[in-house]
Amino acid sequence: MRKLFLLFTVLTFFFSGSIFAQEDEDDLNEIARYSIDEAGNLSLISGTEDAAHDDLWILMLVLLPTDYVEQYLVEFAVFDSEDTLAYVSELQEDEWDLGVAINDDPERALTVIHEFGHIVALNNTQYDTYPTVIEDQQSSLDEDAYYDGVDADMAACPTTPFEDGCPLSDSYIELFTQEFWDAQDVEAIVYEEIDDPAAEFFDANPDAFVSEYAATNPIEDFAESFSYFVGLDDEDFPDNGDDYMMDAKILFFEQFPELVAMRESIRENAAANGIEFQFSDESNYFD
Fold first, then answer.
1. Is the residue at 172 inside a domain?
2. What 3-state class would DSSP assign to 30?
3. Is the dihedral angle over the CA atoms 185, 190, 193, 196 positive or is it negative?
4. What does pTM read for this prediction?
5. Number of domains in the chain
6. Is residue 286 part of a domain?
7. What is the pLDDT of residues 173-232, one digit of tens each?
8. How far is CA 252 from CA 52, 137, 280, in A?
């Protein structure tokens, strides 16, 4: 089992395997996969090497903080897809891969920031992956053993038990969830008691979410809000969170000096390299 986060256009939610996705990952046609060494250099693992992949990787190095790349990213995948722009997944405990579409798209840079937001929220300084999930990554447990183990891990979680891990008490995702989500709603999502959480929660309170996809669960809400925190320019950045909860979620990140500095660094690097953050036409923020 592994955490897998993809950004697509049509929502599905899978508890089994701790997959959060908006479409079936079979949509991806992987062209090449590379390992990343300590210096940030790529070495081909599988597929066909191409200079365009190096250019795409350089774009990632421009956008993403160096310390996170060095500490967490171990593989880089290039794929083509009609719907998918980027994904991250946890291959082993705190070892992540980043996949990026070769297809040029104006929303690709912002999507990468969304995916990077998952690493910000779910790395091992913020989030404890359940022991059962780690064991399954190493030895592929049978289904009964996996679910029994995860049930026990969830019961032992002192904060908000998610599908595959337990946030630390002072973590970004725990503080975000406590502030903006009802515990009973989160539990209903985790145990798949709601057929379409994104539609249900968005329709009930559209002012709370920057997009319908953000209403999927707190983890996606965090990543979507984080991408707006980074991607919005000063003119469009919210002044306060008094009128709209979605604004309060974006401003949530300002209480953390390290995330404010991260935003400034990403935006400066993007501007210096002619990279723009393009928001989807389906964004709820600009309505």
1. no
2. strand
3. positive
4. 0.91
5. 1
6. no
7. 999 999 999 999 999 999 999 999 999 999 999 999 999 999 999 999 999 999 999 999
8. 37, 33, 22
Residue 271 inside a domain? The answer is no
Burial zone of 48 (CB within 10 Å; 0-12 exposed, 13-18 middle, 19+ buried): exposed
180 near 208, Cβ under 8 Å?
Answer: yes
Question: DSSP letter at 77?
Answer: E
**CB-based contacts of 202, cutoff 8 Å, min separation 6:** 209, 212, 214, 215, 284
User: Which residues have CB under 8 Å from 261's CB, separation 6+?
Assistant: none
The whole-chain average pLDDT of the chain stands at 91
Task: Domain of residue 59: give its range.
Answer: 4-105
Sign of the torsion formed by the C-alpha atoms of 60, 64, 65 and 71: negative
Question: What is the total residue count of the chain?
Answer: 287
Report whether 8 contacts 114 (CB < 8 A). Answer: no
Tokens of 241: 């969170």
276, exposed or middle or buried, with CB in 10 Å at 0-12, 13-18, 19+? exposed
Does 30 map to a domain? Answer: yes
Of 85, 97, 90, which is closest to residue 33 (Cα–Cα)? 97
Parallel, antiparallel, or unpaired: how do β-strands 95-101 and 73-80 relate?
parallel
